[in-house]
Amino acid sequence: MEFVEANGARIPAIGLGTWELSGRTCARVVEQALRLGYRHIDTAQVYDNEREVGEGVRAAGVSRSDVFVTTKVWTTHFAPNDLLRSTKESLARLRMTEVDLLLLHWPNPQVPLEETLSGLAEAKRLGLARHIGVSNFTVALIEQAVAISPEPLVCDQVEYHPYLDQSKVLEACASNRLALVAYSPVAKGRVKNSEVLIRIGRFYRKTPAQVALRWLIQQNVVAIPRTSRIERLSENINIFDFELTDEEMEEISAMGTREGRITDYGFAPKWD
Predict the structure, then answer these.
(1) Tell me: the pLDDT tens digits for 262-272?
(2) How many CB atoms lie within 10 A of CB 242?
(3) Which of 114, 128, 147, 272 is deepest in the core (most CB within 10 A)?
(4) Which residues are bridge partners to 71 per DSSP?
(5) Which CATH number fits domain 3-260: 3.40.910.10, 3.40.1390.20, 3.40.50.2020, 3.20.20.100?
(6) Annotation marks residue 47 as catalytic
(7) Active site residue: 47, 160, 163, 183, which one?
(8) Tens digits of per-residue pLDDT, 154-204?
(9) What is the DSSP string of 112-140?
(10) Residue 179 near residue 173, CB atoms below 8 Å
């Protein structure tokens, strides 16, 4: 497994996203992923599956210190006391003493960012989280957060795949020593229809999804594909035995536009 280093954190380059996984399925997929060699599991308060994620981690029989676990605080818990209380509740559900990474799930303009970040930093100082970061933050919000956070931030988790141009966010992350963590890295399965990815994949005997994930890894991006299918789990992690050329990297990057976004809500920030 490769790692991405960012402000003191070592984040496994491929992780398992668990959005929309629930119940026994969630616990089983987490357990299987860890048995296959995954060492990074991503959940969130709003996914309502922290309990099952914790069960899966314990069932896999992998030492807790070898697994990088991320959870995210939902926007209604951004007042500092609320943030700490909800983080402790997350840990109780996970049955863990700390998470490796605690993120703010979406920006919330209703609560001053300074207050939320001081709560997040406090969670780190209290030992509830080893590292802290943000998710769905724009370039302007990254700059603002980095400037006022009392503790170093280690990542911005955003949607990123070949159809979405995220070069500005990638640049802002790099200049602030943050990792970019890509959710929906295979565009919710849409990459399988891309002629470019099919053609490149044929040459390496890889699927379009594997090519898309490899493209992300070669940009020093962490990818957290989600799947509930065991065979897909092995496919997604099997991307460390080939390398795309500079030309192929550029050709894939050229597919991206600002309009390629899949996840967008009324409360989302004004995207770059």
Answers:
(1) 999 999 999 99
(2) 14
(3) 128
(4) 102
(5) 3.20.20.100
(6) yes
(7) 47
(8) 999 999 999 999 999 999 999 999 999 999 999 999 999 999 999 999 999
(9) -HHHHHHHHHHHHHTTSEEEEEEES--HH
(10) yes
